[in-house]
Automatic annotation (TrEMBL):
Matches recorded under PROSITE patterns: G_PROTEIN_RECEP_F1_1, G_PROTEIN_RECEP_F1_2
Bilayer topology: Multi-pass membrane protein
Record's keyword annotation contains Transmembrane: yes
Keyword Ligase: no
Main location: membrane
Protein name as annotated: Olfactory receptor
Record key words, sorted: Cell membrane, Disulfide bond, G-protein coupled receptor, Glycoprotein, Membrane, Olfaction, Receptor, Sensory transduction, Transducer, Transmembrane, Transmembrane helix
Amino acid sequence: MERHNRSSLVEFVLLGFPKVGHVRGWLFVLLLLAYLFTICGNMLIFLVIRLDAALHTPMYHFVSVLSVLELWYTATTIPKMLANLLSEKKTISFAGCLLQTYFFHSLGASECYLLTAMAYDRYLAICRPLHYPAIMTPTLCSKMAAGCWTCGFLCPISEVILVSRLPFCGYNEIQHIFCDFPPLLSLACKDTSTNVLVDFAINAFIILITFLFIMVSYGRIIGAVLKIKTAAGRRKAFSTCASHLTVVLIFFGSIIFMYVRLKKSYSLTLDRTLAVVYSVLTPLVNPIIYSLRNKELIKAIKRTVFRKGERASPTHH
């Protein structure tokens, strides 16, 4: 196998899904359908929230921002994964690999912050309902959403700079389905303990702090909901949080195990499986969770679709 030194290394080989053999075509179709559903589902939720005045509330504002984020998040990795399933030459340039890693982690960090903002919104709505309209104003919502994006895009800069300075004089085959810090570090031909430590510190801070904040918020929410005397009132309060909490547990459950660790890798198969969960499955199920578990959103989708249909149909006299 050809070896490269740092000065001559211009591309990596993404091994992607190894040993898929004759099922590669089926895997491509399955991944393509998942990607198309993710695009259509998140676009539908975003447009319905923007077009329906009844959904112009802080909670749905954050849901619409999450839908846009998921569109960019999946666009960072899935198109390249699809191309590699069809191509024998599964290469990506050195710069392209670093960019993919940067945007993937930037958008992932932005999602951590956004899910935290959504938990804070639910906490205010349920635990401080009288003060909620005065605190969670449209201006504050916009500032919080912008802050989530800004902080997210600043977080991985130091990690990318450190990786870009590493010498890659070994094999150029990345044992993963897309470019990421752990598989890149395993290819470097010098000690990467500093990189691993920096990655761990940044990931632990972003992921664990935001997850802790979300869990504390929901702890207080549950305490407040249990004090509601009527069963109908408790169900209504829990229903507004169930979708968000489901998304949080799926997303954080996979990324905590993947990124809050001092080892480069536990198992290549496990790493690939977890990568599919947080890069494909989570964006795929978000529209399902938020629509199927939300009667208000379902009604808004019906209103929007039927209204557009009525406008498009000709009027007969």
